């Protein structure tokens, strides 16, 4: 019987468990009961779909056995069981590929933060209280039973054994008591009863245990005697089937954290029952924090699906639209067929109607949070707002009307979040469009040269701080009849009639200089022109028709190189009231051979201000140095 070794990350996790860095040791029982419940769900489903594996529902149970004399606690179930290969997979290695991340979080986590189970490693929590664990299991689909034994980091063994009943028995040899730790408490009846009530009351399978009860002594009416009876410790009523008015927030939160492996309370609970063409109960949660892999392809979304009380699927993606993929929870419907499969799920008209109803409920919950719990909604938007924006961009704006009023952007004038409706309602008299600007921060946007004229007009600007923002509004096109317009577009119409006339006169007076600057820059710019939008800055770059400056900046990122090169049609605008313009006029009159350097430096300067890359930084800095040397 050769002993097998745990993989490196499993060893590290076991070391953390065994050395007891985690203080909330009681949750080991919750994790083992949850695993047992899953095993019973699977066997029940197998029984309903395969006549060769019939089992009476009354025989599907979880049993807790206390053996104080031998310091053993046993959790036994009559579930699906495990083969030797499944033992190797489920018990010999951490279940998820992200196990290294889990170990890192375990090492850093505060002791009062519950993260056990987040990465599918709940079984390992038993090593917090046990010095040795024995797992005896017989699979429903096999005749041979197997025993898995481990004392922790030294590895484990798997051997054949005799076991009549299908299911799994987990035997914990508890650690010895110390001055600081009283492991014997987990053999006490009241403690086990309290833990089951606290963590596992909603489990839909009976959790049985022998308990001591006092009954009248038949031989003495004034005395009692103790008897031992088997009692079901949990109510077995799933929380989603309970009356909402009788469920406390703490119960909702504990169920969420246990069921969906989060350690923070959810931001919002959505619990309702629908009766109609398709009847169902839903219990859904909006998390407080986005999972670490939420914006990666590895993230799996979807709701747990139950039908007639039978677990069908863990991640029913078709019940949840991508734009609401952050929602976690479950749906239980009596109207869906028991033999439903993934293929049928995608085509079933009832399921499509169910998904539409769920989507409307989530939408309504978010709208209610935005209206009545603004601070909470803003925190939600910080975590999941990008996903709503992707939802608008995806499918060519198919869901834009549904999602646009859930969007928020930072205001340039106040820095706080505003919705599109709030922006539109507060627009100044005479403002015809919704202005926006792109940048990495509010400070960067407010320093853009193009903001000067906007600020003088006292117009607010929506600050786009994420790459998806401009793509998103391109799909929206307009809101409440008002077009979106970047402040860096060439056709920004902010001038009065007098300002337009003065600009025309300046242009006519300096048309030769402007033409020479354009010739010097060649095809780098479409035009060089007098600016009326600049106040303190000498130059700026704006974009004519076609791709915007920010689109060029976005596509210039290395990760977007595969999509090819995108260039905006650039226009260099020069401030005629800035001292640099007088210098340009002087150079053009007296030293025209130096104009190329001035044109290039100003162009590169404008690119840098706009956050666009310059082609040759070395050449740029050399020109700056040479110009400084020859300045008298």
Helix-strand layout with pairing:
Layout: H1 8-18, H2 27-49, E1 62-67, E2 72-77, H3 84-91, H4 99-108, E3 130-138, E4 145-150, E5 156-161, E6 167-174, H5 189-200, E7 207-217, E8 220-232, H6 249-259, E9 268-274, E10 280-286, E11 303-307, E12 310-316, E13 328-333, H7 342-347, H8 349-372, H9 374-393, H10 400-403, E14 408-411, E15 417-419, H11 420-425, E16 434-438, H12 442-446, H13 451-456, E17 462-464, H14 468-476, E18 478-479, E19 482-486, H15 497-509, H16 511-521, E20 527-530, E21 539-543, H17 549-555, E22 570-574, H18 579-590, H19 595-609, H20 617-630
Helix pairs in contact: 1-4, 2-5, 8-9, 9-14, 16-19, 19-20
Brief summary:
By secondary structure, the protein is an alpha+beta fold. The protein contains 20 helices and 22 strands.
Highlighted features:
Rossmann fold; Ribosomal Protein S5, domain 2; Heat Shock Protein 90; 632 residues; elongated
In the CATH scheme, what's the topology name of the largest domain? Heat Shock Protein 90
Please identify the structural class as seen in this structure: alpha+beta
Helix content: 25-40%
Strand order of the largest sheet: 5-4-3-6-2-1-7-8
Globally, the shape reads elongated
- State the CATH superfamily name of the largest domain: Histidine kinase-like ATPase, C-terminal domain
* CATH architect. name of the largest domain: 2-Layer Sandwich
Low-confidence stretches: 95-100, 110-120, 338-343
Oligomeric category? single chain
Count of helix runs:
20
């Amino acid at each position: 019987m050769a002993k097998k070794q745990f993989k490196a990350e499993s060893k590290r996790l076991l070391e953390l468990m065994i050395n007891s860095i985690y203080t909330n040791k009681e949750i080991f029982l919750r994790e083992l009961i949850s695993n047992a419940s899953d095993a019973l769900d699977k066997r029940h489903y197998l029984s309903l779909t395969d006549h060769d594996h019939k089992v009476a529902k009354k025989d599907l149970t979880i049993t807790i056995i206390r053996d104080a004399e031998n310091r053993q606690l046993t959790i036994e179930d009559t579930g699906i069981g495990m083969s030797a290969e499944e033992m190797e997979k489920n018990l010999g290695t951490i279940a998820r590929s992200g196990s290294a991340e889990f170990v890192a979080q375990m090492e850093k986590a505060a002791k009062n933060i519950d993260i056990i189970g987040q990465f599918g490693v709940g079984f390992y929590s038993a090593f917090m209280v046990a010095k040795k664990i024995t797992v005896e299991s017989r699979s429903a689909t096999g005749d041979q039973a197997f025993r898995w034994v481990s004392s922790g980091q030294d590895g484990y063994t798997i051997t054949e054994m005799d076991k009549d009943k299908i299911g799994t028995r987990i035997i914990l040899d508890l650690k010895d008591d110390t001055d600081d730790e009283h492991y014997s408490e987990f053999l006490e009846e009241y403690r086990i009863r309290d833990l089951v009530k606290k963590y596992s009351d909603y489990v839909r399978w009976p959790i049985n245990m022998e308990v001591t009860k006092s009954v009248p002594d038949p031989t003495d009416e004034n005395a009692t005697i103790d008897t031992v009876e088997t009692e079901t410790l949990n109510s077995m009523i799933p929380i989603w089937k309970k009356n909402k008015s009788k469920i406390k927030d703490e119960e909702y939160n504990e169920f969420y954290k246990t069921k969906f492996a989060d350690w923070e309370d959810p931001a919002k609970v959505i619990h309702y029952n629908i009766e109609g063409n398709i009847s169902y109960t839903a219990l859904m949660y909006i998390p407080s924090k986005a999972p670490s892999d939420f914006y990666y392809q590895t993230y799996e979304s979807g709701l747990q699906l139950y039908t007639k009380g039978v677990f069908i699927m863990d991640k029913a993606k078709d019940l949840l639209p991508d734009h609401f993929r952050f929602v976690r929870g479950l749906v239980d419907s009596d109207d869906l067929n028991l033999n439903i499969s993934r293929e049928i799920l995608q085509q079933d008209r009832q399921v499509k109607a169910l998904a539409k109803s769920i989507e409307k409920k989530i939408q309504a919950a978010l709208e209610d949070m935005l209206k009545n719990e603004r601070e909470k909604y803003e925190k939600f938007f910080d975590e999941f707002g990008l996903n709503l924006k992707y939802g608008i961009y995806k499918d060519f704006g198919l869901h834009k009307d549904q999602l646009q009023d859930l969007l928020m952007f930072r205001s340039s004038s106040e820095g706080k979040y505003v919705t599109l409706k709030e922006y539109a309602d507060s627009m100044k008299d005479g403002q015809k469009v919704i202005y926006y600007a792109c940048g990495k921060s509010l400070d960067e946007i407010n320093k853009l040269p193009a903001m000067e004229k906007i600020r003088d007009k006292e117009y607010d600007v929506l600050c786009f701080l994420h790459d998806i923002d401009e793509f998103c509004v391109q799909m929206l096109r307009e809101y409440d009849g008002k077009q979106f317009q970047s402040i860096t577009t060439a056709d920004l119409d902010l001038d009065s009639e007098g300002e337009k006339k003065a600009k025309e006169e300046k242009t006519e007076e300096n048309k030769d200089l402007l033409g020479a600057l354009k010739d010097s820059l060649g095809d780098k710019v479409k035009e060089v022109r007098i600016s009326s939008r600049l106040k303190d800055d000498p130059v700026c770059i704006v974009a004519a028709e076609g791709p915007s400056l920010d689109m060029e900046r976005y596509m210039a990122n290395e990760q977007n190189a595969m999509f090819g090169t995108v260039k905006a049609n650039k226009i260099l605008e020069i401030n005629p009231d800035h001292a640099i313009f007088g210098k340009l006029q002087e150079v053009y009159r007296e030293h025209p051979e130096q104009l190329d350097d001035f044109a290039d430096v100003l162009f590169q300067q404008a690119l840098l201000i706009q956050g666009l890359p310059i082609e040759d930084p070395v050449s740029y800095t050399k020109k700056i140095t040479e110009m400084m040397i020859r300045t008298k």
